[in-house]
Design a protein that fits this description.
The complex is a heterodimer. By secondary structure, chain A is mostly helical. Chain A has one domain. Chain A is built from 15 helices and two strands. Chain A has a two-stranded antiparallel sheet with strand order 1-2. In chain A, helix 1 packs antiparallel against helix 2, helix 2 crosses helix 3 and helix 10 packs antiparallel against helix 12. Chain A is globular, with a radius of gyration of 21 Å. The two termini of chain A are 31 Å apart. In chain B, the strands form three sheets. Chain B has a three-stranded antiparallel sheet with strand order 3-4-6, with no helix packed on it. The N and C termini of chain B lie far apart (84 Å). The chains are: A mainly alpha, B alpha+beta. Chains A and B meet through helix 2 of A and helix 1 of B.
Chain lengths: 358, 156
């Protein structure tokens, strides 16, 4: 049967037969790198278009509808426009850091792709500390934001960057604790183990209330970590004129924009892996016929379906909720999310020890 | 802050957020009524009082009602209107003042309507055209009386 896993295995086998292992490994690096960049480009185009359409539908508008059928090629046109634009570097800025910041943003997003299981046996690097790696690397993104805000030599950019620093550092905690709740239930940090543990049912359903609370907290923290509304006070178009990337133009701005959308995808992919079973099809206990039917849907479709469902959820948040103030943002984290997620972790541990989950 | 108040706060917050999401979710799934317009194809029905530009009314014989009295020119606060007059010979051989050019500077006009109010013969009125963008500023200086037009019979 055709599957992405079989294709990668046959390519790997063929490369190792034809060349010596070092060259084969190098070729695989190149292939994987190209595919990652390709995925980035596609994600940028698709997610920007999706966001514009979703926002339009939620605000009873039509959205982009001129370029191509239903405005399908609008994002292509926008990309071409951004490519042709002049990338200005302000005179008073720290030129080295200013030019480095968008690259770091995109590299940190790219590193996060490594442990994600896109389909059955289709994963770049199945390292045994997968979840820890993700939460560690996702903190690197804040460096690029701080760098951009500081080097721009612009008050608004600096304010936005500082807000973003406070925000990401705070929300890392509750994101980490909500991830831990699932890690406790699974007993492993490895992505494949986490997916495999959900063969009989997704953790959202299997883990009772702790998993549900962890899921809600994770979604809130993920929205905050990707700097999206209602937690977008790092960019805050209406008060800080786009915050840390005020001074960026042309392709460097596009890189920030792309990194933002790719980060959303990655965070949602992690959420889908932890709570909704990654590429695992939807199974209900003993209904063998139903389960068998579900297995016919390719695993990659399951993964992308779940991920895009979560992305849609986050877009739904963005186009419904108003922006929080800084004090409200920090109150929400330190007075509500953190205590609740700590208590929730305790509850999850109790359930894991007592074996109450299915 | 008591523990009950704390839980109550969370409950109320979640409830109000869900109400908001329900509303936008309803809009998302019921995508029929659109409150915006596809502008170049569908144009908005403008309010009657909307003022876009000054035009001079001409009838089917290419005749207007402007006597060249310059009341509008005097009424205009910005100097938007310049009237160039000439003398025409009437059939009886008398010289009569008539307008040569009614020059209207759209780029200076604030659509205050004072010229329309000042006009004793209702020769000019406000039109609702609003798509005035041009590539060259000089195109905004318009001559309102049509070439070869004459004053209407009986308008003094």
């Amino acid at each position: 049967m055709w599957s992405l896993g079989n294709i990668t295995h046959s390519i790997d086998a063929w490369l190792n037969e034809s060349f010596n292992p070092a060259i084969a490994l190098l070729t695989e690096f190149v292939i994987v790198g190209t595919m990652a960049i390709g995925l980035f480009a596609v994600l940028g185009l698709v997610l920007v278009f999706m966001e514009r359409k979703v926002s339009a539908y939620m605000q009873i508008r039509v959205g982009p509808n001129r370029v191509g059928p239903k405005g399908m090629f609008q994002t292509f046109a926008d990309t071409i426009k951004l490519l042709l634009k002049e990338g200005l570097t302000p005179t008073g800025s720290d030129k080295f850091l200013f030019n480095l910041a968008p690259v770091i943003a995109i590299i940190s997003a790219m590193l996060l792709l490594a442990p994600i299981a896109f389909a059955k046996d289709f994963q770049m690097w199945d390292l045994n500390i997968g979840v820890l790696y993700v939460s560690a690397i996702s903190s690197v993104a804040v460096i690029s934001i701080l760098m951009a805000g500081w080097s721009s030599n612009n008050k608004y950019s600096l304010l936005g960057a500082m807000r973003s620093g406070a925000q990401i550092v705070s929300y890392e905690l509750s994101a980490g604790l909500s991830i831990l709740a699932i890690v406790v239930l699974v007993g492993s940090l490895k992505m494949t183990d986490i997916v495999a543990s959900q063969e009989t049912g997704w953790w959202l359903f299997k883990g009772h209330i702790p998993a549900l609370i962890a899921f809600v907290i994770f979604i809130i923290a993920a929205t905050a970590e990707t700097n999206r509304a209602p937690f977008d006070l790092a960019e805050a178009e209406s008060e800080l004129t786009a915050g840390f990337h005020t001074e960026y133009s042309g392709m460097r701005f596009a890189l920030f924009f792309l990194a933002e959308y790719v980060n959303i995808f990655i965070v949602c992919a992690i959420g889908a892996t932890l709570f909704l079973g990654g590429w695992m099809p939807f199974h209900i206990g003993q209904w063998t016929a139903f389960n068998h039917l579900m297995d016919f849907i390719p695993s990659s479709l399951w993964f992308f379906g779940k991920t895009f469902f979560l992305i849609f959820l986050i877009m739904w948040f963005r186009w419904t909720f108003p922006r929080l103030r800084v004090d409200q943002l920090l109150n929400l984290e330190w007075k509500y999310l953190l205590p609740i997620s700590m208590f929730n972790l305790l509850l999850a541990t109790a359930i894991a020890i007592l074996g109450w989950h299915f | 802050m008591s523990a009950i108040q704390y839980i109550k706060d969370i409950y109320n917050a979640v409830k109000s957020l869900l109400i908001g999401m329900k509303q936008t979710g309803y809009y998302f799934t019921h995508h029929k009524e659109i409150i915006t317009q596809n502008y170049p194809e569908e144009k908005q029905q403008l309010a009657e009082r909307f003022r876009g530009e000054v035009v001079m009314t001409h009838d089917s014989n290419n005749e207007h009602k402007c006597t060249g009295c310059t009341a509008c020119e005097l009424a205009c606060p910005n100097g938007t209107i310049k009237i160039v007059t000439k003398f025409e010979l009437t059939p009886e051989g008398k010289k009569k003042k008539a307008i040569d050019k009614f020059v209207y500077h759209l780029e200076l006009c604030t659509m205050c309507n004072l010229c329309i109010v000042a006009c004793p013969t209702d020769a000019i009125k406000m039109d609702q055209a609003f798509e005035h963008s041009v590539f060259d500023r000089s195109q905004l200086t318009k001559v309102l009386n049509k070439p070869g037009s004459k004053i209407m019979e009986g308008v003094e």
